[in-house]
Amino acid sequence: MKDTPLEMEARVNELFARRSGSDRVRMACEMFDLARALMVADIRRQNPGVTNAGLRVKIFERTYHDDFSPEDRVRIIGRLRDWTGESSSSRPA
Are residues 53 and 33 in the same domain? Predict the structure, then answer.
């Protein structure tokens, strides 16, 4: 669904184009973080006792479900359930 008038879409695009590259990257990162936080909050609302491993699986399923074959999904979900998250470079769930 797209209900934004073309002139408004052009205006928004113009405003974004005026920003520096670093501002656009920062904004994209903030939007990603917000979208992820909203997804996590919804998953926790629907599954109050979800474990960290369960949360990782639910995030994967919502984000990438259609991008992998059923066999690959089973393999990836198995890895997500086994992942301890102890690496200092890993992102917490």
Answer: no
